[in-house]
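Practice problem: Signal transducer and activator of transcription
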Amino acid sequence: MAVWIQAQQLQGDALHQTQSLYGQHFPIEVRHYLSQWIEGQPWDGIDLENPQEEIKAKRLLDSLIQELQKKAEHQVGEDGFLLKIKLGHYASQLKSTYDRCPLELVRCIKHILYTEQRLVREATNSSSPVGSLMDSMSQKYHQINQAFEELRILTQDTENDLRKLQHNQEYFIIQYQESLRIQAQLSSLATLPPADRQLREPSLLSKRATVEAWLTREANTLQKYRLGLAEKHQKTLALLRKQQTVILDDELIQWKRRQQLAGNGGPPEGGLDILQSWCEKLAETIWQNRQQIRRAEHLRQQLPIPGPIEELLTELNSTITDIISALVTSTFIIEKQPPQVLKTQTKFAATVRLLVGGKLNVHMNPPQVKATIISEQQAKALLKNENTRNDSSGEILNNNCVMEYHQTTGTLSAHFRNMSLKRIRRSDRRGAESVTEEKFTILFESQFSVGGNELVFQVKTLSLPVVVIVHGSQDNNATATVLWDNAFAEPGRVPFIVPDKVLWPQLCEALNMKYKAEVQSNRGLSEENLVFLAQKAFSSSSVNPEDYRNMTMTWSQFNRESLPGRNFTFWQWFDGVMELTKKHLKPHWNDGAILGFVNKQQAQDMLMSKPNGTFLLRFSDSEIGGITIAWVAENPNKAGERMVWNLMPYTTKDFSIRSLADRISDLNHLLFLYPDRPKDEVFSKYYTPPLCKLDL
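Answer key — C-alpha cells:
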C-alpha cells in the first residue's frame, strides 16, 4: 500500500509529527496530489554528498514542477479553479526555492518519506520497512531513533524498579514499627509480677528475634535494590550523554555550519523541526530520570542505611544536572542571523530560539532576551568565562525582546524586528588591518528557570561575525572579510580566528558559491573561468588547472594588496564583476552570451580566426565593474590586415542609460557573437521595442 495512504490514517502525536514535516519548503498539498509520482521516483539513488549528482536532482525538480503544472491544468469547475491557482503557485514557489540547490529538494523529500515510513511502521508495529530509503542520512536518523527507544525502555525499567523499591521500603518501615512495638512491650514487662513476665517474655523475645532477623535481611536487600537502581541510572545517563553528544555536537553543529555557508550563498540550512523534536525527547528523558533520582534520594533520607548509596546518588544528581545544563545552554540558538555586514543607523532583524523551551515549560514565565554588540576580544573573554559584565562595543536600539511561545509549532522564540546600531566603539587595530577587517558579534543572553525555580539558567549565544560599516562604499571590503570567515572558519575555534592562507581550490569553491548566489544563476564559474581567476590572482600565464591545485592564496593577496599595476585588489575586481552581472547582465550570463573571464590577449587569439564582425564580451581588466566588447575587423590603416578592436568598458552608469542588448543592436559592425551565432538570434528578445509613430 502507498505510504501516503497509510500516513493519512495516522492519529495523535504521529499525525502531528507528519503535519510538521510540511510547510513553505514543501507544501502538504504537493505531497497529496503527487503522492504516487513522488513515491515512484529514485530519490535514494542520489548521493547528497556528491555535487556531481546535482544534474540528476535538477531533472527530478524539473519533472516535479512539470507534474504540478500538469495537475493544475487538469483542474475544472469552481473548486478546481482555486486548486489550479494554488498548484500553479506551488510550482513557482518550489522552482524559486530549489532551482539553485536541487539537492536540498532531494534531501527534503528523502527525509519526509523516511519519517512517514517510520511513523507508519511504528503505528502498525511492523518491523519490515515500507521502502528502501535507507541512505546514510536516513541510517543516521534511524540510529538516533533507536537510541531514543532504548532510553525509553531503560527509563521505564528504572521507574518500575523505583516503585518496587518504594513498596518494599514502605513494608520495611511497617515491620520496623512492629519491632519497636515489641520492644515497648518487652520494656513494659518490668512492671508486671515475675510470674506474668516469665509467661509472656519468651514469646515476645522470639517475635523480636524473628522480626530483627527479617529487618537485617531486608535492609541488605533494600541496599542491593538501591545500588542496582543507581547502577541502572548510571547506564541510562551514559547513554543519554552519548545521544546528546550526537545531537548537539554533530547534528546541531552541522546545522550551524550550513547556516554559516548559507551566508556565503550556500544552500538553505534547512528547518529546525527535526532537531527540536530530538532535543525535546532528550529534555523529557533527562527530566524523567532527574525526578527518579530525586525520588530515590528522598527514599534514602526517609530510611538511611549506611553504605555507598549516598555518594552514588549525589554523583548521579550532579551528572544529570550537568546534562540538562548542557542541553539548555546549547539549544539557545540563533535561528535567523543578523546581517553580517551591518551598517550603523540602519534597521536590522534577528531571531533566537530555545529548542527545549516548550517541553520544559519555560514559556509559562516568558523570558526576556537582550542583544549587545561586543568585540572579538570581548567574545574571547566571554568564552573563557572571564568577567565581562556590562561590556559592550556599541549601542543597539530596540535590543530587548520577550520570547513568545507558538502553540501550533511548539516553538519558543524571540523575534528582534527593529534593531538598529546607533553607534560603534572600535578597538585599536593591528598593523595593516582596516576597519572592514574588524569583527564584532551580537551577543544574545537570557535567564530563566525550569521545574518551578528548581534550576535557574543563564544562557548566551553569539551571532556569526559581523563587520560594522558607516558608509556603503565600505560594503565590498566588509563582504570580503565575511566571505573569508564563513568559508574557512573551523568548528570550535577561538573567536574569530581564520587561516591566513588557504588552498586555491578551497577559495574557488567559496567564490563559485558566492557568484551563483549573487547573480542568482545555475551557471557558476567553469574550470576555464577559474583558471582565468588564478592567472589574475597569481600573475601567472599557465592555462593548466593542475598547476594551481596546490597553490595557496593569502588574505593579503585576496583583499589587502592591489593587483600588479592596478589600484584595486583581487576581491574588489571580482566583486565588481558580480555586482555588474547581478544588476544588468544576468539574463545574458544565464544564456551563455557572456564569456566574461577572458583577458585581452586570449580574446585576440580567439577572434583572429573568425570572420570580420565576430565579437565577444569580456570583463574589463583595468576597471572595476566594467565589461568590454572585443571584435575583429579590417585595419583601416593597412589594407588586407585585420585587427581586434576593444571598446571602452561599459559600467553600471552606462547600463542605467541604455541596456547591453540595445547597445549591441546599435553597433552595426557587430555581426556574430563568438563563435558564430548571429547577434539578433542571441540578443533580439532583449531589445527595447521601438516607440510607435502616431499618424497625425
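Discussion: The chain has four domains: 3-126, 141-328, 367-497, 503-686. Students who identified this feature from the C-alpha cells alone can consider the problem solved.
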